[in-house]
Amino acid sequence: MEECVIMESRTLFYSSIEMIDKKELKELQLKRLRETVQILYDKNLYFGKKLRQAKVKPSDIIKLDDLSKIPFTTKDDLRVNYPTKLVNVGLDQVVRFHVSSGTTGDPTVVAYTESDIDRWSELNARCLAMMGVKRGDIIQIAYGYGLFTGGLGIHYGAERLGISIIPSSAGNTKRQIKLIRDMHATVLACTPSYALYIAETAIQEGLEPKKDLNLRVGVFGAEPWSESVRKRLIDQICPEPYDIYGLSELCGPGVAAECHYRNGLHVWADNFIPEIIDPKTGEVLEPGEEGELVFTTINKEAMPLLRYRTRDVSRMDFDTCSCGRTHPRILRIRGRSDDMMKIRGVNVFPSQIEYVLQRMDELGDQYQIVLTKLGPLDDLKVKVEVKPSAVSDKPWEMVGLKKRVEDEIRSVLNLNLEVDLVEPGSLPRSEGKAKRVLDLRGQA
Question: Which fold has domain 1-336?
Answer without folding.
Answer: Rossmann fold (3.40.50)
